[in-house]
Amino acid sequence: MVLKTLVASVCVLFVLSVPSKAAVRTCKAAINSGPHVAKSVAEGQTRAIAAWTEAAGVSGPRFTAWRVAITKSLTCTPFTEHQVVCVAIATPCAIEQVAPRNLAPGAPSTPLPRVIPVQPPGAKPLNI
Predict the structure, then answer these.
(1) Which residues contact 87 (CB under 8 A, 6 or more apart)?
(2) pTM for this structure?
(3) Pseudo-torsion of CA 111, 112, 118, 119, nearest 10°?
(4) ∠ CA 13-14-15 to the nearest 5 degrees?
(5) How far apart are alpha carbons 121 and 128 in whole angstroms?
């Protein structure tokens, strides 16, 4: 029992000492592609997303991925008998790897607390 507690304590200390990084989604203001007339829905959607991508690029190349954007809306409505009008609206975002503030390079590290295993009544004391 004491050995299990000691092993568990060492495992906790190891997990707490391994630095980790978190992915963070950074977003800008929503962008509207404007209306795009096409002969088919597929062509209209392609044109609208291409225009949205170009407009999102103003915020930087990291923000041009439609698949990473949030609050997406891609609508097409009939325009004439053989044409549709499509509009893409979405909030451009980028996924960035950001280390927690206390693990940033050059930041002073905080010593981990010493974990003392709990011993059952009547057990011999451990020398750690």
Answers:
(1) 32, 33, 34, 35, 36, 48, 73, 74, 75, 76
(2) 0.61
(3) -60
(4) 95
(5) 18
